Amino acid sequence: MKINLEWLNEYLDQPLAVTESDISDLVEEIERTSVEVDDYKTLADKQDGLIVAEVMSIATHPDSDHMVITQLDIGQSQQVQVVTGAPNVAVGQFVILAQVGAHIINHESGELIELSQVKLRGIESNGMLVALQEIGFDAKIAPKDFEAGIFVFNPEDIKDVSTGDDALAVLGMHDIVVDTDLTPNRADMLSMIGTAYEFGAMRHVTVTEPDFDLIEYETLAADQINVVIDEPSLVSKYAVRVMNNVTVQDSPLWLQKRLWNAGMRPINNIVDITNYMMLMYGQPIHAFDLDKLTGQTLHVRRAGEDEILTTLDGNERHLRSGEDIVIADDQRALMLAGVMGGMSSEVDANTKNIVIESAVFNSTLVRATARRHNLHSEASSRFERGVNSDNTFNTLDHAAALVDQLAQGQVAKGRVVAVDKQPPIIKIQLTSQRVNQLLGTQLTLADIATIFDRLAFTYENNGTALIVTVPARRPDISIEADLIEEVARLFGYDNLPVTLPVGPTTLGKLSHRQRKMRATRQIFESLGLNQAISYVLTTAEKAQKFTLAQKRPTVSLSYPMSSDRTTARQNILSGLLDDVAYNVAHSVHDIALYEQGRVFFAKNENELPQEVEHVAGVLVGELAESHWQKEKAERTVDFYDIKGIVAQYLDEIGISEKSIRYVATDQYPDMHPGQTADIYAGDIHLGFVGQIHPSTLKAQKLPRVFGFELNLEHVFSNIDEDILYQKISRFPQVSRDIALLVDDNISNATIESVIWDTAYSKLVDVTLFDLYTGENLSKGKRSLAYTLTYQDDDETLVETDVNTDFEKVKQALVSGLGAEIR
């Protein structure tokens, strides 16, 4: 909300000082007591040298068909000559002259430039006639388009302007505007009067609300318009007034200044009055052209089937049947209630009779409509947060009085009220004991009452407690805690006593589950995978891919921000595939990623989902590894690489290798049926590992991708071994090599099992370093060579002990497997 301090001071009995130093102190106080301040500045900024001038004569330029030579009165003895190409310049106009030496803002670059004397096609020009866009006005708030030409003062405003006056001051561009960043609960500060009450409470100043005189004519409003409310739930207050014989024209300068300093564009006097009232009271109102209505009845109803409305921004809106609230005549919708008016009943230069409405619409329905149509207007932002229902009809009457004053309209007699439901009066009891208990203060009941006096809250003091009546302008206050917050912020947060918390202290530490979660990330990173973070929200199709269980109902948002972020994920692999696609598109071909996060499962529709921790990973491209034949070799990753990562993780996290089993499966439509396995710990399903189905990758033009996904809840519940720290031995290792000739149906795992079962406790590692099949070997035989490594943590090994154990292992291989020692 942009707060013009000059305007705000009209409602404060003691005006706020508006010098530069005072503003910085005020802003600091606002932020400490009330709300954040985004910025404070003036429209003038650092511009200078702009004055009011009167066009005395115009002559054609001898060397141009679009420029003219003007002579200007600037309040001095000698006139000033300026050459201009403005299409709307005319004798007798009061315009804005940027003199030689003036500093103005370049409307294209935003930079400050200094004007100098120039010759245009050989004719001397001493300055520049400007449009508002050329002196810092955004195109959104300038009342005329830049192409329309220079700014010209209305004839009605000339009596208050003299040649030579500072144009920046005349246009209100020196007014300091404080831009507050309101929280959703502070609906009261979306109005100048509501802000005046807030600033008045901060500065101990009384607020005086504006007064007006409303003169009604004999013509009855009820004879010209009627209002029908289809559903009581749509609106709690609704009334209209009729004004006849209005003259639609530009607003006077004082009103335009109020609007453009508030960031709104002046349109015409009728529209400007409705916006001015909204800024003043926080109550949106809307004007219809009475003669454009079909029939004499306004209907407040829900949108009908296939109903279409063109709103004032020129966009065609396809209304949602039974959900959007509209104001309609007997045949068609006229506006989206509480959001934006429609083109069909727009007030324009030919309008003679108008109807102005003021209402309190259902805030939930207004919010839904604004989101549905992506149409967040000044009106909807106020209805969504809550308006002051005490001012709903007062705003309407004030607007009618201004139409009489500024548009010569005749206010028809009587206010047509369709509904006037009074909101419940909220009374809250508050004791000093409770306030002091929460704030740690020593405030008396009288001290607290003084704070509510500053807030202009009414209350009863029964000697032991205050019975506070919450004003309608403060919809954010409903319980005792809200009142205590008001006491705290106006007493001053920096004045509250500072104390250390009292109570037993406990040693902070991670839970067992948190330690395992952290260990999961560390293990995968130690295995060469990089962590990725994907969006929790995805499309409905991607959400149900790679599911570890039966298809379950999805969890979808009612109002998603985009079409590709509508549904909570039920897997992590889909997000990792998006990451792979991004990397491949940026010429990264060797990818190793993992992600740990939550997935969401709902048992039934419209139920809160169950959140389950998962971890998933992918491998793509070439795998570089050390090799005994080459220092570095590259090969394409395969199923066994991703399976090895999963196996290593499960071993390091504490699940016994003996309990893990891999079962081939073709039950996952998005996984390759010949290269996918379910992972079990006993009978508990932990997840799956394998190759992503080529058809799944085809749409994103991805190479072969291998991946896995594990349910961490199941993994953690099946941990049966505590991972213990083992110190590194400082004693040397002893190794022995052995080459075996065995039947080719004997697996490496079988041989290693025999070695481990036979050797004594000092054996620490068994490594296969050679495999040979081919010439010089009998049919059905193959040769395997192993290195056995021995080490003792406590002492140096004795050579005879190692040799004895090594012989024992050889005998076991010969007798148990029929191996031949080579």
UniProtKB/TrEMBL annotation:
<keyword id="KW-0547">Nucleotide-binding</keyword>
<dbReference type="InterPro" id="IPR009061">
    <property type="entry name" value="DNA-bd_dom_put_sf"/>
</dbReference>
<dbReference type="Pfam" id="PF03483">
    <property type="entry name" value="B3_4"/>
</dbReference>
<comment type="similarity">
    <text>Belongs to the phenylalanyl-tRNA synthetase beta subunit family. Type 1 subfamily.</text>
</comment>
<dbReference type="InterPro" id="IPR012340">
    <property type="entry name" value="NA-bd_OB-fold"/>
</dbReference>
<dbReference type="InterPro" id="IPR036690">
    <property type="entry name" value="Fdx_antiC-bd_sf"/>
</dbReference>
<dbReference type="InterPro" id="IPR002547">
    <property type="entry name" value="tRNA-bd_dom"/>
</dbReference>
<dbReference type="InterPro" id="IPR041616">
    <property type="entry name" value="PheRS_beta_core"/>
</dbReference>
<keyword id="KW-0479">Metal-binding</keyword>
<dbReference type="InterPro" id="IPR033714">
    <property type="entry name" value="tRNA_bind_bactPheRS"/>
</dbReference>
<feature type="domain" description="B5">
    <location>
        <begin position="423"/>
        <end position="498"/>
    </location>
</feature>
<keyword id="KW-0963">Cytoplasm</keyword>
<feature type="binding site">
    <location>
        <position position="486"/>
    </location>
    <ligand>
        <name>Mg(2+)</name>
    </ligand>
</feature>
<dbReference type="InterPro" id="IPR005147">
    <property type="entry name" value="tRNA_synthase_B5-dom"/>
</dbReference>
<protein>
    <recommendedName>
        <fullName>Phenylalanine--tRNA ligase beta subunit</fullName>
        <ecNumber>6.1.1.20</ecNumber>
    </recommendedName>
</protein>
<comment type="subunit">
    <text>Tetramer of two alpha and two beta subunits.</text>
</comment>
<keyword id="KW-0460">Magnesium</keyword>
<keyword id="KW-0648">Protein biosynthesis</keyword>
<feature type="domain" description="FDX-ACB">
    <location>
        <begin position="729"/>
        <end position="822"/>
    </location>
</feature>
<keyword id="KW-0030">Aminoacyl-tRNA synthetase</keyword>
<dbReference type="GO" id="GO:0140096">
    <property type="term" value="F:catalytic activity, acting on a protein"/>
</dbReference>
<feature type="binding site">
    <location>
        <position position="476"/>
    </location>
    <ligand>
        <name>Mg(2+)</name>
    </ligand>
</feature>
<dbReference type="Pfam" id="PF03484">
    <property type="entry name" value="B5"/>
</dbReference>
<dbReference type="GO" id="GO:0006432">
    <property type="term" value="P:phenylalanyl-tRNA aminoacylation"/>
</dbReference>
<dbReference type="GO" id="GO:0016740">
    <property type="term" value="F:transferase activity"/>
</dbReference>
<feature type="domain" description="TRNA-binding">
    <location>
        <begin position="44"/>
        <end position="168"/>
    </location>
</feature>
<dbReference type="GO" id="GO:0009328">
    <property type="term" value="C:phenylalanine-tRNA ligase complex"/>
</dbReference>
<dbReference type="GO" id="GO:0004826">
    <property type="term" value="F:phenylalanine-tRNA ligase activity"/>
</dbReference>
<dbReference type="Pfam" id="PF17759">
    <property type="entry name" value="tRNA_synthFbeta"/>
</dbReference>
<dbReference type="InterPro" id="IPR045864">
    <property type="entry name" value="aa-tRNA-synth_II/BPL/LPL"/>
</dbReference>
<dbReference type="GO" id="GO:0000287">
    <property type="term" value="F:magnesium ion binding"/>
</dbReference>
<feature type="binding site">
    <location>
        <position position="482"/>
    </location>
    <ligand>
        <name>Mg(2+)</name>
    </ligand>
</feature>
<dbReference type="InterPro" id="IPR045060">
    <property type="entry name" value="Phe-tRNA-ligase_IIc_bsu"/>
</dbReference>
<dbReference type="GO" id="GO:0000049">
    <property type="term" value="F:tRNA binding"/>
</dbReference>
<dbReference type="Pfam" id="PF03147">
    <property type="entry name" value="FDX-ACB"/>
</dbReference>
<dbReference type="InterPro" id="IPR004532">
    <property type="entry name" value="Phe-tRNA-ligase_IIc_bsu_bact"/>
</dbReference>
<keyword id="KW-0820">tRNA-binding</keyword>
<keyword id="KW-0067">ATP-binding</keyword>
<dbReference type="InterPro" id="IPR020825">
    <property type="entry name" value="Phe-tRNA_synthase-like_B3/B4"/>
</dbReference>
<dbReference type="Pfam" id="PF01588">
    <property type="entry name" value="tRNA_bind"/>
</dbReference>
<keyword id="KW-0436">Ligase</keyword>
<keyword id="KW-0694">RNA-binding</keyword>
